[in-house]
Design goal:
CATH class of one domain: Alpha Beta
Oligomer: single chain
Number of helices: 24
Bound molecules: iron/sulfur cluster
Length: about 450
């Protein structure tokens, strides 16, 4: 190993040696600025340091030891949505998501946050990756809604985050009771594939009907659907917030669970989880036991809509005469480059009218837990999204990520707009049900 200038730079760096943002990745930025018009935070805040180019510059300056991990550095890293719209726009192929996750990992280790912020992050990250705790929080949230408990928390910043947390919760009549799903669901007709379904932490508690619809639609398309009981969180929230070590532990557990299930494909119906699992190879590349496993695992991961489009979903749909608009979840369109497949599937439903949404791939402000950590900005992005949704005149808005569903539904509720928010797979499932001839 050379002891030349690279080691010299590392000694001076503001970053430590545990997963620093990689020099070769930030040097791929040629400062062209083509990403700027796609960056929601740059467009809203109008500040170069809140653009992808600005943030890459800050990361480089910190790595070269020219700046430290200061309040200002952290402010610009925190303000990023990690929506990865800049990756779609970038002609140089800069892997911005990886750079930002690693920069945030350094921040979490080396920067002293205010106690209230530290507690809020710790609380959120110790609840959301665990479905039982999400269930308990749902109950607590309902009591808080009834009793106004959040008003007991007098700290201004925390109060706003807790207010959003309460407001995000769907009304009780919109959350179905738990829908138990069998470990193995047989294929309808001749089995063609054996697939494993990641049920997701938030998805299985707040949107169990989405998982149930996914199982039915996959089975209808010749899949034996396995739900490994040993699966846990995919690790995406931890990774987004710089918790790379817990994210690695979740990733290893997920890989093991689906390996044991011996499936051909691993299916995700939450964009954030699919994007995370496809990226396990980068996360675990230094792990001698899991680097290879992570690579082969990632190649088997498919988003549910991507998979159905790829295998040519059977078109025995009945008519759904509905006006629908589609919001591109960031981690589907930018994280996985899946833009046309959901639209093609929706358009194949007879009677369904798909109305294009202006700025459909502009973040809704949910962005993992951004809406809770940066509530003022989260609301600004949401208002812009809801304005565009309302302008379509659609009766249903559909999107393939539970965080976006929660966020958009909250925005619509606050304006008393009775528009339904559904996952596209629910519409496919409804179309299949409509295609079943009633028995005489
Ligand atoms: S990830 Fe999104 S918010 Fe962050 S710099 Fe890129 S485009 Fe901007
Ligand atoms: S588009 Fe890519 S290369 Fe150009 S400034 Fe943005 S990140 Fe850098």
């Amino acid at each position: 190993m050379s002891s030349g200038p690279v080691n010299q730079t590392r000694r001076q760096s503001a970053f430590d040696a545990a997963d620093p943002p990689e020099e070769k990745k930030y040097l791929e930025c040629i400062h062209c600025g083509l990403c700027l018009p796609s960056c929601p935070t740059y467009l809203e805040m109008g500040n170069e340091m809140d653009s992808p180019r600005g943030r890459i510059y800050l990361i480089r300056m910190a790595d070269e030891g020219k700046i430290g991990i200061t309040d200002s550095f952290v402010k610009h890293m925190d303000a990023c949505l990690l929506c990865r719209a800049c990756e779609t726009a970038c002609p140089s192929g800069v892997q911005f998501g990886s750079l930002m996750e690693k920069a945030r990992g350094q921040v979490e280790r080396k920067y002293k946050r205010r106690l209230s912020q530290k507690l809020l992050r710790r609380f959120i990250l110790s609840v959301f990756p665990y479905p039982d705790r999400v269930r308990a929080m749902l109950k607590l949230g309902r009591s808080s809604q009834r009793l106004g408990l959040r008003r007991l928390v007098i700290h201004g910043g925390l109060s706003k985050s807790l207010q959003i947390m309460e407001e995000l919760l769907p009304p009780p009549d919109e959350v179905p009771a738990d829908i138990p799903l069998p470990r193995v669901t047989p294929a309808e007709g001749t089995p063609k594939f054996r697939v494993g379904l990641l049920t997701g932490c938030v998805q299985q508690v707040l949107y169990p009907q989405v998982n149930a619809a996914t199982v039915r639609v996959l089975a209808r398309n010749g899949c034996v659907v396995v739900i490994p009981r040993e699966q846990g969180c995919c690790g995406s929230l931890q990774a987004h917030e710089g918790g790379l070590e817990p994210a690695k532990a979740f990733a290893r557990k997920t890989i093991d669970a689906f390996e044991q299930a011996k499936v051909d494909y691993v299916i995700a119906n939450a964009a954030g989880c699919g994007s995370m699992m496809k990226g396990y190879a980068d996360l675990l590349k230094e792990d001698p036991l899991y680097a290879h496993k992570a690579e082969t695992f990632g190649q088997r991961v498919r988003d549910a809509l991507q998979f159905l489009h790829q295998i040519g979903a059977n078109g025995r749909y009945g008519p759904l005469p509905l006006k629908v608009t589609y919001h591109d979840a960031c981690h589907l369109v930018h994280g996985q480059q899946i833009r046309n497949e959901p639209r093609a599937l929706l358009r194949s439903i007879p009677g369904l009218q798909l109305i294009e949404l202006k700025e459909s791939d502009f973040c809704c402000g949910s962005a993992g837990i951004y809406n809770l950590l940066e509530p003022e900005y989260g609301v600004r992005f949401l208002e812009r999204k809801v304005d565009n949704i309302v302008a379509t005149g659609a009766e249903i808005v559909t999107t393939a990520n539970p965080g976006c569903e929660l966020q958009i539904a909250m925005g619509l509720r606050k304006r008393n707009i009775t528009m339904k928010v559904l996952h596209p797979i629910e519409l496919l499932d409804m179309a299949y049900q409509a295609g079943i001839a009633p028995r005489s």
